[in-house]
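Forum > Structural Biology > Help requests

Title: Can anyone predict the 3D structure of D,D-heptose 1,7-bisphosphate phosphatase?

Hi all, first post here. I have the sequence for D,D-heptose 1,7-bisphosphate phosphatase but no way to get a structure on my laptop. I'd be grateful if someone could post the structure tokens.
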Amino acid sequence: MNESKGRAVFLDRDGTINIEKEYLHRPEDLEFIPGAPEAIARLNKAGFLVIVVTNQSGVARGYFSVDDVHRIHRVMQQQLVDQGAHIDAFYLCPHHPKEGLDIYRVDCDCRKGKPGMLIQAAAEWDIDLSTSFMVGDKESDLLAGIAAGCHPCLVTSGYGEKYRAFALANNIDVCNDLGQAVSRIFAKSR
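Reply #1:
Sure, ran it for you. Structure tokens for D,D-heptose 1,7-bisphosphate phosphatase below:
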């Protein structure tokens, strides 16, 4: 490891931090998965950068705007701060390769399972991807983490149970929720 570079835990948003609600775009619908704020606070205290990387194809589909996503992130951040935690940065992919509005109908490098958001964050935050982790509830989260050179971890909150077999077949840790994933990250980081 390059000692001058930081370690990060990249987190998917919906189904990992907050309860999965199809195309969440209203702040009043934001609801944390139990224990998620405390898990993020543990990462903060341990010196990990905590970075959200989220696919938001609802923007491409015209269901809501990029500004709506930023509004959710501001509310999430404030609620986390109120509970002694914080997110260091939010990255979002508003694209979809086949559906939606022309400006966002793009086969991009930022949509997870591709690693674009993680690579961008690593460059902007001076992160050592080889000592960092990607936690999410979908195969696309795991694939993005692998492609970026991170250690992936599946949580079975959200859609995660659907991807348990994929994770196990690829020797990827499977955890019930973010709290358990953070404990596993700490064990692997010693």
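Residues 46 and 186 are 9 Å apart (CA to CA). The beta strands are 8-11, 49-55, 89-93, 133-136, 151-155, 173-175.
Shout if anything looks off.
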